[in-house]
Design goal:
2 helices; 92 residues; 2 domains; mainly alpha
């Protein structure tokens, strides 16, 4: 008798989880769509902010160049290469 009751309980439990499957998918999909909309809004906000900051006083867009040179201070001459690249860019 106990085994029959356990299987009935397991069957009820499986039906309960199956009944939550589709509503769970709907909630998960809705949350994903909301997340995409929020991230898209943040991206647009940051792009507008960047555009406002990058405009100089005379109305022209400034060009910003950044260098990432890992281990330039390791003593292998990388720092000199970096400064030569910056000097060439300034001359250009």
């Amino acid at each position: 008798m106990a085994a029959g009751e356990r299987s009935w309980c397991l069957c009820k439990l499986l039906r309960f989880f199956y009944s939550l499957f589709f509503p769970g998918l709907i909630v998960c999909g809705t949350l994903c769509v909301c997340l995409v909309i929020v991230l898209w809004g943040i991206r647009l906000l940051l792009q507008r902010k960047k555009k406002l900051v990058s405009t100089s006083k005379n109305g022209k867009n400034q060009m910003v160049i950044a260098f990432f040179h890992p281990y330039c201070n390791a003593g292998g001459g990388g720092e000199r290469v970096l400064w030569c690249a910056l000097r060439a860019l300034q001359k250009k």
